[in-house]
Amino acid sequence: MRRSHTTRTLPAPATGKTRDWETLRSLIPYIWAYRGRVLFALACLIAAKMANVGVPLVFKEVVDTFTAEKTTQQAALVVPLALLAAYGLLRFSMSLFTELRELLFARVTQQAVSNIALQVFCHLHALSLRFHLERQTGGLTRDIERGTRSIGTLISYTIYSILPTLVEVGLVIGILATRYEASFAWITFGALLLFITFTVLVTNWRTHLRREANELDSAANSRAIDSLINYETVKYFNNEDYEAQRYDQQMQKWATAQVKSQLSLSLLNVGQAGIIAVTVTLIMWRAATGVANGSMTVGDIVLVNGLLIQLYIPLNWLGVLYREIRQALTDIERMFALKEEHREIADAPGAAALVAGPCAVRFEHVGFSYEAKRQILFDVDFAIPAGGTVAVVGHSGSGKSTLSRLLFRFYDVQSGAVKVNGTDIRQMTQASLRAAIGIVPQDTVLFNDTILYNIQYGRPEAVREDVIAAAQAAHIHDFVESLPEKYETRVGERGLKLSGGEKQRVAIARTLLKNPPILIFDEATSALDSQSEKAIQAELERIAVGRTTLVIAHRLSTVMNADEILVLDQGRIAERGTHRSLLERGGAYAQMWALQQQEEETEAA
To answer: CA dist 368 to 62, 107, 363, Å?
Structure first.
């Protein structure tokens, strides 16, 4: 299959409160699963804020005690001591309840993040091959990273900042309304409405600037990762400067977007500071007037000042908090969009597991296309009896590798059926089907881990002795034992520290360890030199004995001993038969054979 040059990017999330509420509703079940801790933490939050508001109330009484004209010396000593003790107790209670709240919510936050991240990870593995061929790895990982981080940010800011501030606002306005004239409460309430309205409007206006910066950040990250993954290709063509220029262009766009975002943030901060300054001035003017006409004490003006300080310090961060919460919601929405990505291939209701044992495979009049306008396979019909070997040959682009993808059920056919032991694979579980199939691909990609880990990946629960036995059967054990670190040798990114033949032998050992009844050799030797090809080909033929085997090959010398050879031409079976019968027919296969023999003779000469 030829990959499309386009890459898949997630659509930018829709703006608006509707999407935010949908994201919150999706998040709430993960939090509410720990409702006991949540409710206890909220109780601690309210207790902490009541203690916090109680501090200026006690301090007012201390000031009034010392400023009262008729206060006796004994009262001046005893009363402040009791009030100061209450002051200290309230301060300690505020810290105690705050720490209890954070301690209780720590597990809720981390467990919610872990659960969601695990679900997204599992869902991504359940998505079709089409999704993973079209995705951008860098942007995808950045979306997951930002999403998981933003869940903690959202919970932290909501529970530790926004909710406590709202509780404190209610308590402060209640105190001002009950203890003093109504103008204090109305000024405070009006200022809060103006402050919140201004903050929300400006933050919403600048949200698209932050989103644009994030999109450019993901694009730059994707470009960097793509370039680093293809490190060798960059070196082959001496394109380091070209890659640096492309990356720099993306980073310059990101930097410009960040500057615009900072300018809008400065406007927000200046506007908030102006509203707070005017409000505090009005309140203190009313309090000073009250002290002057005798309706308020010096302690009252201290109390009002203390309440305003406690109120506006957290409010001063409201713009930052609201912006971060909106951004967190946006990032979480992108991650949830991954979780909601449609699973193109899913188990049918009531799908049965494939029974262990010998397997017969049949492609029954299969028609398939990756895209509606370009069909790949046309009425492909053949069978592989249990323990038999069928080889498929043909030119590049004829649809050979598509057969292996259909057998693995990475895609579903549009017409016909792929059957194993007479059952359509769409009616059996994907896990049991894939457990029965082993593959040695053309390009073996290994994990950046040890040789032991990469072989054991075929059957993770296998013991070390089984891994060594598989390595011996694949004729790689002696090579591994010759290495300084033996089976603990790390193979590097994608196995680049090993040669092509060594990687193929690791792949063979891994497949042998899996011990599947069905084998697929997808051009397993095409990337090797003639000597390595002959050695590995002998091993492939040996491990195929007694297994149902599909061999996809370009070099005809590797399929001479197959029970049946299919010649695929532009998605159709043009010829079929044994190696000898196809040569005697003198058709396309015979021409391909003659051409390859000529090429080999030329190379030998």
So the answer is: 85, 49, 12
Pick the CATH number of 17-339 from 3.40.50.2030, 3.40.50.360, 1.10.3720.10, 1.20.1560.10: 1.20.1560.10
| 587: helix, strand or coil | coil
Question: For 303-354, how does the pLDDT look when each residue is reduced to its tens digit (9 = 90+)?
Answer: 777 777 777 777 767 666 776 777 777 777 777 777 666 666 778 888 888 8
Q: Are 166 and 42 in contact (CB under 8 A)?
A: no
- Specify the pTM: 0.59
Q: What is the DSSP letter of 59?
A: H
Q: Report phi then psi at 69, rounded to 5.
A: -70, -35
pLDDT in tens, 353-394: 888 888 999 999 999 988 878 888 899 999 999 999 999 998
Write out the H or E segment, with its range, that includes residue 364.
Answer: strand 361-371
Domain 361-604 is classified in which CATH homologous superfamily?
P-loop containing nucleotide triphosphate hydrolases (3.40.50.300)
Closest-CA residue to 354 (of 222, 516, 463, 499): 516
Which segments of the chain belong to CATH 3.40.50.300? Answer: 361-604
pLDDT at 8: 42
Owner of token pair 């908090």 = 321
